[in-house]
Specification:
The structure is a homodimer of 371-residue chains. With 371 residues, chain A is an alpha/beta fold. In chain A, 34% of the residues lie in helices and 14% in strands. The relative contact order of chain A is 0.13.
């Protein structure tokens, strides 16, 4: 969807002309009351569910959650996935031409915020004729967007589903993001953000950024279980190599994840998204009082967290729940005992998946007037 | 102290000729029974205590622990600090000339292990005529050396003091080390380890390596308390900058720590020391059974850990204690409720400092036949 009207951004700039790439699943009903907006996290996109014809590897990032007969049942709901501004998966981003110069934005692409993304998503909803979503949902950074929706457009969503998220990053979260940024910014191939013109990609920086990020997505226990101190060459004598190559499975795994990521992800997008994460802090305008920040919400909430998530720990979700309860909002909170750390929100965990399924059953029942 | 006899290394190589830089504090008594060896961690050195004449900033890294009237009282004990092989503070390391080629070792400096360091320290003790230490002590990586002493030379120490340490790194620990290594190795200024010849230093890599390391030394809570989401320009309007510069105090702090470190630390040394950390695993030769690994120890042990240390958590110290108890060793264990994460072992915490003081009082009493 192309937008010719300039978008005013929180940081002061504007995007003169932009495109949002989106996908939909299921059918919008006659009164347009069954739409669900799914917001994506750091390295995901509008491609939430299903696969593209002839490409069986192209499975959507939340395919276990969204689809026919799945927790967010596309036989009932009209699900929309939107790629956020600044991303590298189709919506206008730093690799696209700035209409003012004809050259790629690069590092001059404006720093966008969670609130900017929500503003753009709302304009897309306008164009699609969706006045109110049955639910807006997301995990991690996607959960921040859902939360922002509930505050910025309280009347436009009946339910808000916030999974493995937080009302703001901690100093430690910001610190890890800044390590990632410094790795990218100090890669000579970053070229001040104009690497596109030089035919290079700051792969080394992206690789290190992804490696450090990936560590924070997994739990210590899960890493211990999956990798422990297993050597990569266990078959060949189980000996240390005594060089700076790969000794341990965990090194091999992380480097592989880093390499893969650096092949497809855009460095400027990574910088932008980490800043959006850092900046999100809706309580900031209320002197840190999250209860006040959530005072004008009207949606019903489902909040979920995972016991071993040390990136956005259950404590952070409890802050959200507490602020909602203080506002006398309806809120369901699931703290799920799961071993997989932050990544758990993307994985198959029966208790988690069943909770979301049950919540969407209730949304559906509510739509039939049976709440 | 120069050693002309080649040192056989665990990794198979040898160091043909090497020098160990060391400092001593206090006076060795007539029967040479009051010597204490202090082993250093990642970025420290032989300069444990005191300051150099005319340089008031040159305070030793454990000056709060070692000195006249301090917990390790140099009016009683003869304390030795040794700089480890491969370091960049004086002992033979990658920046020194390989006698075989006349050129700096660079990345060809052999990968040394905790056990190699202990072997070299034992040879130094031989030269100093010290048959048995009153205690060998260390924190973090230094604690690993103390533990290795208790296994490799059980008769040569009466007490073993292991603080904020672990019997082996976890997958997560190794993962963070590998991020640091990849940051250095992929810095173009690393030049395959021969940056000395090119008059450059892989500062960007070292900087990122230090930033990520530093995060793991601090507790989440401590970071929240010290930095939280404080903005650096709080005085100038408390506004986000909407660029990739510094917004938050924590970014400023970490980048400063990274910059400072990259000015004085050697990149090859950093790689070597992280490998020594990764490789340490005395239970490995016993099919993972730490109790068996510690079976031939004879020392009495003092083990301490800190509640908010998530790098080497109390659980890891408890593993050591349990294995010692199973071996019917005398062991004192202090799990100290302290807010400062892994760094706590270097800081002034009254309970911690007093525990160490009391333990050394007991060592002293034992030496007078009053145990």
């Amino acid at each position: 969807m192309r937008f010719a009207e300039p978008l005013q951004l929180q940081g002061g700039g504007t995007l003169a002309d932009y495109t949002l790439v989106y996908e939909t699943y299921g059918t919008l009903n006659a009164d347009k009351s069954n739409a669900v907006l799914v917001c994506h996290a750091l390295n995901a996109s509008h491609h939430v569910a299903g696969m593209y014809e002839g490409d069986p590897k192209s499975i959507g990032w939340w395919d276990n959650m969204v689809g026919p007969g799945k927790p967010v049942d596309t036989d009932r709901f009209f699900v929309i996935g939107v790629n956020n501004l600044g991303s590298c998966f189709g919506s206008t981003g730093p690799m696209h031409a700035n209409p003012a110069t004809g050259k790629p934005y690069g590092a001059s692409f404006p720093v966008v915020t969670v609130e900017d993304w929500v503003a753009a998503q709302a304009l897309l909803a306008d164009k699609l004729g969706i006045a109110q979503f049955a639910a807006v949902m997301g995990g991690s950074l996607g959960g921040m967007q859902a939360l922002a929706w509930s505050m910025m457009h309280p009347q436009r969503l009946r339910h808000c589903v916030v999974i493995a998220s937080t009302p703001k990053l901690s100093a430690q979260n910001i610190a890890f993001n800044d390590v990632a940024r410094q790795a990218i910014l100090s890669d000579p191939d970053y070229r001040g953000g104009d690497f596109y013109a030089h035919g290079v990609v700051p792969k080394n920086g992206l690789r290190v950024a992804r490696m450090v990020g990936h560590i924070t997505y997994l739990s210590d226990d899960d890493m211990a279980e999956k990798f422990g101190r297993k050597l990569r060459n266990a078959a060949e004598g189980n000996a240390y190599k005594f060089d700076f190559g790969i000794d341990f499975e965990i090194e091999s795994y992380l480097r592989y994840q880093g390499d893969k990521f650096s092949e497809y992800f855009d460095a400027n997008t990574y910088l932008l998204i980490t800043k959006a994460l850092d900046y999100f802090d809706p309580a900031r305008a209320f002197d840190g009082d999250l209860t006040q920040a959530l005072a004008n919400t009207t949606a019903e909430f489902f909040v979920a967290s995972f016991s071993t998530d040390w990136r956005f720990s259950p404590e952070r979700s409890r802050e959200i729940v507490q602020a909602l309860v203080c506002n006398r909002r309806r809120v369901t909170y699931a703290e799920i005992d799961a071993p997989h750390g932050h990544d758990a929100f993307l994985l198959e965990d029966a208790r988690y998946i069943n909770m979301v399924r049950a919540y969407y059953e209730r949304i559906w029942d509510g739509m039939k007037g049976q709440a």
